[in-house]
Amino acid sequence: MSNSFTYLLVKWHYACLNAWLNLLRKLLFKRVGHTAVQRILIVRKGTLGDCITVLPVVHALKEKFPAAVCYLLTENYGATDIGASAVFEEGSFTEVLTVSDYSPSALSVKLEELKPDAVIELPQPLDTLYTQTRNMLYFRLMCGIKQGAGWQVSTTTLFRKAQLKYRVFKNETERHFQQLQSHGVSLMTSWEFPLIKPTPLDKLTAIGELMTFDDRPIAAVAIGAKHQRKRWPVERFVAIAERLVENGWQVCWIGNTSDSKQIPLNYAGENLCGKLSIAETVALMQHINLFIGNDSGPMHLAYACNIPVVALFSLRDYPGKWYPPAYTRHVVLSDKTVPCAICWDKPCSDSICMKNISVDDVWSAIQQLVKNE
């Protein structure tokens, strides 16, 4: 079977899945804005990076419906310190509900009390047809919500190699804007990331951690990632930090406490891993001139703070989906030629796609970004 014919089957597969979701949506829900919208339920699962990608969408929804009260239904998978409550500015939502805190029946009772007029689900790429069908039926039949939008199967594992070769995956932020547009929810497309606004105390904490730094440019290095296979070798980050210092840069290492334990003793720079909250990290970013890191929450936070980003991506997932938005200043490094590409959760003992990114590749990307500044 040729790759081109295989991809035709993939396109047909996506078309059938989304035709079903569109049909069900039209049968169950009215268009959002069909009548006055006073209360909106926004559904988005995930942690730091997942939430940052939809910040512009949430911002645009609030601008379109300025008088509406907004609720958020989320799931942080136990990582509360980097969940939605840590990302969305205080006051963005009247109430934040976490799925794991409720049984389905208890959640339906809660939502009936809140009485949202509309539900807008911003599904994760791997949310299945079954999951989204279930959610649509749940919100309409059990919770009584009459207006709805957002559902889409955007990723399947069928014929992965053909998809890798022929399909171009949209950035997550762009995907949600386009999907809502197709459902009749027209949003402003000229946007910037509304940032988490650090308090004066957050800013003071960040400045305190920077007391040993001077006026030279500062590069932030982040070695962490949710999955081990998405991590570039730590010793290569150390080599990049050394080159930066040799070329007049100052370096700070950011991440969580477990990242701190991975940094060897002979590193260049200041280790701030585990010392700052999300808001304090945003305050720190205001003093940063460059970010280098894996596909991770800190990487998403960096481009949202308008910092030039060198992002290192594995081939665990399809390219493009989690890349920084096109308008940001960034270089993405990823080896798309490895035979084990699009492995997802298959066992991986080598991370060859990450190891194929050399120190010289990253250094060239840094020079490219700095030259264009």
Give a structural overview.
The chain is an alpha/beta fold and 373 residues long. Helix content is 41%, strand content 12%. It contains 15 helices and 11 strands. It has helices at 3-28, 48-53, 55-64, 84-87, 104-114, 129-142, 160-166, 172-182, 200-209, 234-246, 257-262, 278-285, 297-304, 352-355, 359-372; strands spanning 39-43, 69-74, 95-98, 118-121, 147-149, 218-222, 250-253, 270-271, 290-294, 309-312, 330-333. α13 (297-304) links the parallel β9 and β10. The chain is globular. The mean pLDDT is 92.
Strands, total number: 11
Number of helices: 15
Helical content band: 40-55%
Structural class: alpha/beta
Order of helical and strand elements: HEHHEHEHEHEHHHEHEHEHEHEEHH
Categorize the overall geometry.
globular
Major beta-sheet overview: 6 strands, parallel
Strand content: 5-15%
Question: If strands are numbered along the chain, what order do they take across the biggest sheet?
Answer: 8-7-6-9-10-11
Short description:
The protein has helices at residues 3-28, 48-53, 55-64, 84-87, 104-114, 129-142, 160-166, 172-182, 200-209, 234-246, 257-262, 278-285, 297-304, 352-355, 359-372; strands at 39-43, 69-74, 95-98, 118-121, 147-149, 218-222, 250-253, 270-271, 290-294, 309-312, 330-333.
Keywords:
alpha/beta, 373 residues, 12% strand, five-stranded parallel sheet
Detail the topology: elements first, then pairings.
Blueprint lengths: L2 H26 L10 E5 L4 H6 L1 H10 L4 E6 L9 H4 L7 E4 L5 H11 L3 E4 L7 H14 L4 E3 L10 H7 L5 H11 L17 H10 L8 E5 L11 H13 L3 E4 L3 H6 L7 E2 L6 H8 L4 E5 L2 H8 L4 E4 L17 E4 L18 H4 L3 H14 L1
Parallel strand pairs: 1-2, 1-4, 2-3, 4-5, 6-7, 6-9, 7-8, 9-10, 10-11
